[in-house]
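Hi again,

Forgot to attach this to my earlier email, sorry! This is the prediction with MTE bound. I've pasted everything inline since the attachment limit keeps bouncing my files.
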Amino acid sequence: MIIKTQKVIATSEITDPLLFKQRRKIIKSLLAITGASIAPAWANDNKSAWLNLPESQFSEKLLTPTPAELIKNYTNYYEFAFNKEDSTELAQSLSIDPWSVEISGAVEKPGNYHLEDILRQQTMEERVYRFRCVEAWSMVVPWIGFSLGNLIKSVKPLSTARFVKFTTIEQSDVMRNQRSNAMLTWPYSEALRIDEAMHPLTILAVGMYGDVLPKQNGAPLRLIVPWKYGFKSIKAIVKIELLEKPPLTTWNQAAPSEYGFYANVNPDVPHPRWSQNSERQLGSRFFSPRRQTELFNGYGEQVAALYRDMDLRHFF
Ligand code: MTE
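Structure tokens for the complex follow:
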């Protein structure tokens, strides 16, 4: 399934500090070092060349990425707009350089970390994941990112850390919907259980399609949790908190009966407005058959054990 990790890119191999001045340069440099950007991973039929994760843990069903232009122009970014077209255009005004992430709570090494410093210590990988929105559409994206678990380990979590909360930046001068709490309460926040956050499939993405993340898709840093509905994958993260108790999260607070904390993709648990049984694949012609939605978005082999003791019918 569904994971193609193309290349492991050691950021530590880069020594020239000037390269870290801009994120675009960082990613470009990282990719240039491994030659990753020009020949896309998904064009490579030689699976063994880019699968570097243990096959027992990750099977290898091939995924064909959705055309990048579609993904860049069909975005959900409610701080900017409640429709997918305007949010793409308006997000271009977001200021993302410099960027830092405050890591706090139940950790031995809290701090306000520059993104460049975080990236320098992490190993970049390309992960091709299916991304499933609760609005019953899906796409396939080659993300570039690094393990959230490794970042958490680097700040030494305390044994009391049971949840991880993420918060999006507040820039109400350009994020115009942040000027009112009419639909959602800002800043946008999301959370995971600590074992979900530490799971090897969970990444923080800084790029896609061999380039930096477009602003509308969550630049400079967003969460990707491929077995959960897309609203969990919070964009433009400025804060990561390790907590003892489950925090309130944006959608769960807005409509708890529609947006559960877990939000694991589950074809058998309908949302009040959208059956989750099947999905429209972005990029497919409208008359092509819908795709049957898979439990955990097809990642059950890797993640089902996390929910062994839960009755999945009751946890939307
Ligand atoms: N993060 C923030 N900060 N604001 C948002 O409105 N929308 C979520 C999620 N992350 C959202 C967000 C929803 S509902 C989805 S489906 C995905 O982002 C969409 O990601 P995409 O626009 O890159 O496709």
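Residues 22 and 97 are 8 Å apart (CA to CA). Residues 2-261 form a domain with the Sulfite Oxidase; Chain A, domain 2 fold (CATH 3.90.420.10).

That should be everything now.

G.
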